[in-house]
């Protein structure tokens, strides 16, 4: 069945929409030897969980992303390994994989005639990779180091003393991650926002994404038909050539209780969409 209307794209200009990208924070491992004992469980590593939580907080604070819950990203990794790109099925645009590559702490003390001091120093290095889920290609990779210090001083035997400050670990890891977050944000936002046509019901198109992403009733989007896929003989990778605009849709309503299950109902306003080949199309913002 083919939906068709007379096509005209003169009105494609519209105000820029702040549509949020969906991001899944995947494996965040501790590649150092710190805190690893005989009973160490790599699936329940406290430092990896700590780093993941810090990254999640930083990304959420930017208000540019919807973060996929932990139980979902294992499924994303599995799907990526089997199909090479499943954004339209899982609902994530990007997957972040991270690791703590260096971690160390030391104490430096100075002794004078009437005073002494002790400085605690923690250094950490974090590596992050950003994967475009639709292609499985790494679009950003970076590593940064962070440092945190604390000092206590005693004069004539008076003053504070302290054991090792455990919060320094948080601060050092946070400092390293903070240096990478801006690059992560820019890499995501430089890529065009996309949604996918999931199905057609009674002439209405059900597309991925909803209110949490910033989609509103009355919004209009361009429908792109995928370009031809060719293989690069130098890299062996398949490359999808640029698509072309073939239609326009308008959002009639949004549905769903959580960002993971939100969808929007849209109607065709211009162009044509072959409903038997919905996997050949994707939705983008109008320019």
From TrEMBL:
<keyword id="KW-0564">Palmitate</keyword>
<dbReference type="Pfam" id="PF03783">
    <property type="entry name" value="CsgG"/>
</dbReference>
<keyword id="KW-0449">Lipoprotein</keyword>
<keyword id="KW-1003">Cell membrane</keyword>
<dbReference type="InterPro" id="IPR005534">
    <property type="entry name" value="Curli_assmbl/transp-comp_CsgG"/>
</dbReference>
<keyword id="KW-0472">Membrane</keyword>
<keyword id="KW-0732">Signal</keyword>
<dbReference type="GO" id="GO:0030288">
    <property type="term" value="C:outer membrane-bounded periplasmic space"/>
</dbReference>
<protein>
    <submittedName>
        <fullName>Curli production assembly/transport component CsgG</fullName>
    </submittedName>
</protein>
